[in-house]
């Protein structure tokens, strides 16, 4: 059955009760009001989704009431009831934001379907608003994890430029979170409800990239059977994020420059300009200044993009944030898996902080997902990390930095890696018996994934 909250505003008691009964039988929760003052009190107190209101009320006009209510409660839909078929009243009601209008008595059979459609629209609007709130909460600056001075300074810069609607250039290594910053700038800017459209410029050939960004007309090339909007047009009213901008063909750079300067462009195969209103955020891991010197990037586009530049620090320059990020990813992946992991050992965190993180936060995310999958208890330990982490920790620290068991465990792992999991050969290199090696494997929980072939315990 239908569900939702409806407010009936009608001063005639008999008509009001009749409407309430009809709508209640359809499964709606119905509230009553005999005048506009009572209606406003109900709107404040209850979550009203659809209003069915008479035009002539003791303390005002239902059509003017529509305009007032839509300005306060934009998601609510209003159906106006008129005593006489008055076209001018109906037209004015629609202009003021009414969903529709009905003539009393003549259109009783139309009331239920009309209310149903109005309820669907109101509830859809509410869902969209909630979704927009969730997106904004998910991608705002507060959700960028880190307390190091480097990341705090970077966030502060991004927060300053977000409301300015200025073109932004994000610089940083792969995996540092450039797209996350771009989304945070978007939702904190002037157009948070507009589309956020992201494109990796390195993922397409020159011709495909032009079509993706600027769109094309039917017949522009073989296979172009119909008109296609480009992403710059799809993002109009919002933000277009161009990742790896340094990989864009130099001829396409000229078309992008025109968008930045005039807010217009020509689609592939078209002869007229298309106007857009879009904010551009670009990102790259390249040195665009060097590319300009070598003729690989247009100087004029570089200066146009370089209005406001933000350098996002690599993870190795903000090691203080590694435990925070690891904890964040631990919570993320433990919720997705059936593994009841709750914490990380000190040795586990030490090894994370010693790693170089050439893949930055993206690499850390992947390592944490792998560690949670391999976990067998409530705590992540060094045994849940890939062997290269353990080998690096072993090589970069003096023996006095670890207890004897840790050193032995790391050494056995290195030898097993060297022998590609061949335990007979590993035992010979370690100068221990094969039975002793199997016992050590069990003792240190050297489970599958730590050397090139799977470990099968001796039975």
Textual characterization of the structure:
- The structure is a single chain.
- This protein has helices at residues 13-25, 36-45, 62-72, 87-95, 108-139, 149-161, 178-187, 206-214, 231-234, 250-262, 288-293, 299-305, 322-336, 346-354, 360-374, 387-395, 404-418, 423-430, 434-443; strands at 5-9, 29-33, 50-54, 56-57, 60-61, 77-82, 100-103, 168-171, 196-200, 215-216, 228-229, 239-243, 264-266, 273-275, 279-284, 309-311, 343-344, 379-380.
- With 459 residues, it is an alpha/beta fold.
- The protein folds into three domains: 5-135, Response regulator (Rossmann fold, 3-Layer(aba) Sandwich); 143-311, 3-Layer(aba) Sandwich (Rossmann fold), CATH 3.40.50; 317-443, Helicase, Ruva Protein, domain 3, CATH 1.10.8.60.
- The strands form six sheets. It has a five-stranded parallel β-sheet with strand order 2-1-3-6-7, sandwiched between helices.
- Helix 4 links the parallel strand 6 and strand 7.
- It starts with a strand and ends in a 16-residue tail after the last helix.
- The model is unreliable at 396-401 and 449-459 (pLDDT under 50).
Features:
Rossmann fold; 18 strands; Helicase, Ruva Protein, domain 3; alpha/beta; 5-stranded parallel sheet; 459 residues; 3 domains
């Amino acid at each position: 059955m239908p569900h939702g909250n409806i407010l009936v505003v009608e001063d005639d008691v008999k008509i009001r009760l009749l409407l309430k009964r009809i709508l209640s039988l359809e499964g709606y929760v119905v509230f009553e009001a005999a005048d506009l003052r009572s209606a406003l009190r109900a709107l404040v107190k209850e979550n009203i989704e659809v209003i069915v209101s008479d035009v002539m009320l003791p303390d005002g006009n239902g059509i003017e009431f529509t305009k007032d209510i839509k300005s306060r409660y934009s998601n609510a839909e209003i159906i106006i009831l008129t005593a006489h078929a008055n076209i001018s009243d109906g037209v004015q009601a629609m202009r003021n934001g009414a969903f529709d209008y009905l003539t009393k008595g003549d259109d009783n059979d139309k009331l239920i379907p009309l209310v149903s459609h109005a309820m669907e629209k109101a509830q859809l609007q509410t869902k969209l608003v909630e979704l927009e709130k969730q997106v904004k909460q998910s991608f705002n600056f507060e959700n960028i994890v880190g307390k190091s001075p480097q990341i705090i300074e970077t966030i502060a810069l991004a927060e300053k430029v977000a409301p300015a609607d200025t073109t932004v250039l994000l610089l940083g290594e792969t995996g540092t979170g450039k797209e996350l910053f771009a989304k945070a700038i978007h939702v904190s800017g002037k157009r948070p409800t507009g589309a956020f459209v992201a494109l990796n410029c390195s993922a397409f050939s020159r011709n495909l990239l032009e079509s993706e960004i600027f769109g094309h007309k039917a017949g522009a090339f073989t296979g172009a059977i119909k008109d296609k909007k480009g992403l710059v047009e799809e993002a109009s009213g919002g933000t277009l994020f161009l990742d790896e901008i340094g990989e864009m063909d130099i001829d396409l750079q000229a078309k992008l420059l025109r968008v930045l300067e005039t807010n217009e462009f020509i689609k592939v195969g078209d002869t007229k300009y298309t106007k857009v209103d879009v904010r551009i955020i670009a990102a790259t891991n390249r040195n665009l200044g060097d590319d300009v010197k070598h003729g690989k990037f247009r100087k004029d586009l570089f200066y146009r993009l370089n209005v406001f530049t933000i350098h996002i620090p690599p993870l190795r320059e903000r090691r203080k944030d590694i435990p925070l990020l690891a904890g964040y990813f631990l919570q993320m992946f433990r919720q997705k898996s059936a593994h009841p992991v709750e914490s990380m050992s000190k040795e586990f965190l030490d090894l994370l902080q010693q790693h170089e993180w050439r893949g930055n936060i993206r690499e850390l995310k992947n390592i944490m997902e792998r560690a949670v999958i391999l976990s067998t208890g409530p705590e992540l330990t060094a045994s849940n990390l890939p062997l290269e982490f353990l080998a690096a920790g072993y090589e970069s620290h003096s023996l006095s930095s670890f207890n004897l068991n840790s050193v032995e465990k790391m050494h056995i792992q290195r030898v097993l890696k060297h022998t590609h999991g061949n335990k007979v050969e590993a035992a010979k290199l370690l100068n221990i018996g094969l039975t002793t090696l199997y016992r050590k494997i069990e003792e240190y929980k050297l489970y599958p994934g730590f050397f090139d072939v799977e470990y099968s315990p001796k039975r």
